[in-house]
Amino acid sequence: MSLPDVDADVLVAGGGAAGLVVATRLALDGRSVTVASSATPATLLSTGRILLDHDDPEAEEWASFFLAQFRRQGAHYVMSKRPVVAITNLGTGMRQSLTSPLFDWTSKDRDVAVVGLVGNSDLDPDLVSLEMGRSRRAKPRPYWFSPSFSPELDPGGFAEELGNVLMNDVAEGTVVLPPLPHNTPYGLLAELRKRSGKKVVEAATPLSWPGRRFQSLLEGTAERLGVRILRDRRLLSIDVNGREANRALLSSGVRTQRATFNGLVLATGNVVSGGLAVSGREVVDPLGLFRVSSARASGISSRQLRATLSSGLVTRRGKAVTTDGVSLRNVFAVGSLLRGMSYPLGRGLGDVMVHAWEIAPAVEEAL
Amino acid sequence: MTSRTEDGCIKCGACQAACPVLRQEGCLSFPGPRRLAVEAPRFSRELASLSSSLQMCTSCAMCESACPSRLPLTEAVMRMRVRYGARSEGGERMISNARRYGRTIAPASRARAPAEGSVLFFPGCVGDARVSSSVQGAVDMLLASGDRAFVPEQWYCCGSPLEKIGAHDETKRLRDLNAPILEDAEEVVTACPGCAVQLRKASSVDALHVLEHLYESITPSRLRWRSPRPITVALHSPCHLVRSVGPHTMDYARELLASVPGLRVVDMDDEGCCGGGGGVASALPELATRMARRRTDSAARAGAEVLLAPCPFCVVNLERAGGLEVRELTAFLAALSEHRR
Q: Residue A257 sits in a domain of what CATH number?
């Protein structure tokens, strides 16, 4: 028994950074777009750090559009002059665990306070100070603060109290806070900066939240433009007719739902996000009808891991190629689903998003 | 021997961050899904100390939704529980009730409904015995909107709670008893998310949650509402409805509510599990109550006068918290329906 059909100009399979960026650009041009997202995109687990190529006009275009959208939603971010390499939270060790997407530790950092919040076990200021002193020769000073207000439930009270404490009782000019809960309002860090007159940043730990925030900023941008996001839907199968695909089957819990479309964008991510299930050089369903190859990845010593992580869909001018060697007229692939675009090869969110941004006009052309 | 769950974990911690029991109780009382589902099976020496925390999982499946490797964590916890955890007193009571009545709770008075028709309404043990308004409300609404709805004279537990505590023989016995009853109906509809999923999975019956039936077969535009006084409600998202029956159900619930004049739905700042599932309500009622209070507090903070839940089991547990009116969604809608008999 199926659910009512979904009908859109474009169906995007995958609701991470790649899928949402391509969906947003298509919606900007007035196309009806539905995004089917299966579960947790890898974007959600990232530190929200983006590496952009400063000489790339497409990257500049992406940034000038999205950063304005993020600002409108109250996001706080820093654009550094030099490229910043994206670090994901997956498998991080101690050193990466204590970095912030908004702040880099250097040996000169003597003007930094690490403020622990009692009740928030994600960041221990004493441990951070010790570790930073040992590994980076930085000299942050540890503080503990016991808030009377919850940042989630009473952000106003929290900001006022902590803002005053930071202004009056903390001598340093830069303050590192533990990761704040993900339903903390976006404007809170900016508010704390304003109240305290200090640079306030949020640390990223393996259980932290910048990736969640980044994900919800991308979702917010897409939804504002009318993109319909179907969450917890899985792509079960794609019907291919000759050189075209116009129907796919999704599942919502125990029921199925047929989707019809003029264009399909695959943005299901690589192995880690569960989209591209690879066994050796073969893709396992639901994308089993596409051809896969591996990129060179000399940095990974395990052969098996290398084969898996560097595998990706073969595309011709952005279009997915089937195992029979046919490139489909209206099926595109973006993001870490492509070979060489996955995290362990040193690429990151920036590449994925700029690529997705570039592909959108080609998708429109195929409609 | 290791399983896909143990080998597939990438140690990202997303499940730990998503777990509502861990958030409520803290890591000193509850080690979280990763420890129970992934690490415990590897380090069997520690199992003895984990058996009590295994009882704390509400099987809400938020860990599973958060898992980037899509590991079946809830199932793994339930398996661990059956293998190592002692069965709770509540579990034993369910089994003895099942043997005696064919239901996990002793049957209550029957709903006013025809005994024959084409749309079979499956009351489910909790709806029948604890939230009869949800059964009566659903039947009334289906009849009023022209369905030939009926409740069969005899029906048995769908088996969902029994399967979760490892009572496989009893689950199978009841499934076989239910089979001829369900077979004859053109459609099977239930207000209980647990029953809907179990009937689909184990009995291969295309059971619909009543929200799905109301939305897809009757459609909101055909429903007529009395104009009540303006009211503000919050909508609870039952775990087994959202993550097992399917996330589309909550879209339906919101659209149905939007068609009621004078009714406003407010968003809660803290969405999550009612705390009653997975046998927690019977094994650890204090924990279930603390979790429920989180929900009702959040609804009250949002300014809701009533908290609505499209699941009879959630209603029973949320009512433990006290302080805020909790209603089963279908029963609530039936009371506002113009066609009320």
A: 3.50.50.60
What are B's interface residues with A at a Cβ cutoff of 8 A? Answer: 10-14, 16-17, 27, 64-70, 196-197, 200-201, 206, 208, 212, 216, 242-249, 269-270, 301
Are A217 and A362 in a shared domain? yes
Please report which confidence band the pLDDT of residue B341 belongs to, taking 50, 70 and 90 as the band edges.
very low
DSSP summary character for residue A46: B
pLDDT digits (tens, 9 = 90+) for B77-102: 888 887 776 667 888 899 999 999 99
Q: Do B246 and A44 touch (CB under 8 A)?
A: no
Determine the residue of chain A that is closest to B213 in CA distance: A3
Looking at the structure, tell me whether residues B18 and B75 fall in a common domain: yes
Q: What is the distance, to the nearest Å, from the Cα of residue B72 to the centroid of all Cα atoms in its chain?
A: 18
Pairwise CB contact (< 8 Å): A45 & B14: yes
Nearest to A25 by CA among A75, A55, A69, A56: A69
ipTM > 0.95, yes or no = no
Containing domain of residue B10, as a range? 4-84
Q: Model-level pTM? A: 0.81
Looking at A205, A229, A259, which one is the last position of a domain? A205
> Cβ of A17 under 8 Å from any chain B Cβ?
no
Dist. CA B289–CA B276, nearest whole Å: 8
Q: How far apart are CA A320 and CA B210, in angstroms?
A: 41
CA distance B265 to chain A (A): 19
- Count of structural domains, chain A: 2
pLDDT in tens, A139-179: 889 999 999 988 877 888 999 999 999 999 999 999 988 87
